[in-house]
Write a structure and sequence with these properties.
By secondary structure, this protein is of the alpha/beta class. It contains 18 helices and 16 strands. The strands form three sheets. The protein has a seven-stranded parallel beta sheet. Strands 1-2-3-4-6-5 form a six-stranded mixed beta sheet. Strand 15 and strand 16 form a beta hairpin. Helix 2 crosses helix 3. The longest helix has 17 residues.
């Protein structure tokens, strides 16, 4: 929980907490409660008033304010645009660039301690670019950052000078592209799948009504138009997608753009992020198009049992984050962590890719989707560098490359996969030949 004198922010897990009632928690001060996925927020009346959200406020593109039977906002917001409207308006100058420097420096240090030399920020509001740029100019900054700006229709229509060619790895901060949210999260029931959610107490709690299917954030045509608005300008995109139905819509959006320039996707390397319910044929089609995928592997570690027992059933959990299928389809697959949903820890992503074992139960979901240790190592080194078009600068050790190093206390190839996190630890991190962290 973060608390300011006149505004309170809470982060909560919607599947395990009691129903969110911000009006009861803080009847007078503006209060915003965020789900830990970041795909939903809950505001009290004072927060709605501060944000200026009324029955006449239009829903931002790709998101919505939940309303009662009379059309009045209830305080619940779903997806990026609506959640951002609550967060930034209510926060005011508490989240302005000049107040964020110490927080960014702390976060960068945490990344360095996890052995990370380059991170991708997949939800950068344009008004924070000044803060990110300023921190990167500090002589001892321990992290290289590449940002994808929140991809609104307004930004697509008028990108100005925010996007440009990546200056190369020697520049510690740059904007790489735009981020789109084609669907949401299983925890809010907001992913479009060919199979239904289960009918139980957990799914009823998140608003699913008896084996229903989740929605996309856009219609297929809206998504295609938005993706084309960026890609046709030479701006690559990263598209958040979980459901297999949504993934088909993203592939169709990319296909429409590629019809005008068959080599465009291979040049820009547009990404699909998370890819929870994606199937082997879909991975193959994406690879053939020239798109690339990044999987949230630790979804299985921290949430695999919830997927199997509460949301979809064991069969879906077996193929959730199907890393081996993506690899076999020809992708230069990367693995990532995702904000508050899991700790930022590439070694944990490797361990989960090797075993698909959940925590804390120790159950295994999907042995056929395991990676080998050599494959898993590439998913957090050379492959993500390629996805950022920085493969000639970072991601491997060759003459002429940046001397980015993560020092481990043993050869990870000799570790027991089932005890990987007990046996392998980061002891040092170097960025461009400069030490940034040591144990």
């Amino acid at each position: 929980m973060t608390q300011h004198p006149d505004t309170i922010f809470l982060n909560a897990d919607i599947l395990t907490m009691d129903p969110v009632r911000p009006h009861e928690l803080a009847p007078h001060a503006p209060l915003v409660v965020f789900s830990n996925s970041g795909h939903a927020a809950y505001a009290n009346t004072a927060a709605l008033r501060t944000a200026g959200i009324t029955r006449h406020t239009p829903d931002p593109a790709g998101s919505r304010f939940i309303r009662d039977q009379h059309g009045e906002p209830t305080g619940e917001a779903h997806e990026a645009g609506a959640v951002e409207a609550l967060m930034w308006t209510v926060a005011g100058d508490k989240l302005e660039p000049h107040t964020l420097r110490s927080s960014l420096e702390w976060a960068y240090a945490q990344h360095a301690s996890a052995g990370i030399t380059t991170a991708t920020d997949m939800a950068t509001p344009p008004h924070l670019l000044a803060a990110l740029t300023a921190v990167s100019e500090h002589p001892h900054v321990p992290l290289r950052v590449r940002s994808y700006l929140i991809g609104t229709p307004e930004l697509a229509a008028d990108p100005g000078s925010l996007f440009g060619a990546d200056p190369g790895a020697e520049r510690l901060f740059a904007v790489s592209g735009g981020k789109l949210w084609a669907d949401g999260t299983p925890w809010q029931g907001s992913i479009a799948t060919s199979f239904p959610f289960q009918d139980n107490e957990a799914t009823l709690r998140i608003g699913m009504n008896h084996c229903t299917h989740g929605p996309m954030n856009y219609t297929p045509d809206q998504l295609a138009d938005l993706a084309a608005a960026f890609l046709s300008r030479g701006i690559t995109v990263a598209c958040h997608v979980h459901g297999d139905v949504t993934f088909d819509a993203v592939l169709e959006a990319y296909t429409r753009v590629a019809r005008t320039d068959p080599d465009l996707l291979r040049r820009l390397r547009p990404r699909m992020e998370h890819c929870g319910a994606v199937t082997p044929p879909q991975f193959r089609r994406a690879a053939e198009l020239g798109a690339t995928v990044s999987l949230f592997m630790d979804h299985v570690r921290w949430w695999g049992d919830v997927l199997a027992d509460d949301l979809f059933g064991p069969r879906t959990a077996e193929t959730w984050m199907a890393a081996r299928s993506a690899w076999d389809a020809g992708h230069r697959l990367s693995l990532h962590n995702d904000g508050a949903c899991s700790p930022t820890d590439p070694l944990s992503s490797i361990a989960t890719a090797l075993t698909r074992r959940t925590h804390p139960s120790g159950r295994v979901h999907g042995t056929d989707e395991r990676l080998t240790i050599d494959q898993a190592l590439r998913t957090v080194t050379a492959n993500p560098a390629w996805q950022l078009s920085l493969e000639n600068d970072i991601g491997s050790l060759r003459p002429g490359m940046q001397a980015d190093l993560t020092v481990l206390d043993r050869d990870p190839r000799t570790a027991d996969p089932d005890r990987f996190l007990d046996q392998v630890a980061v002891t040092g991190t170097w960025l461009g030949g400069r030490p940034t962290w040591t144990a």
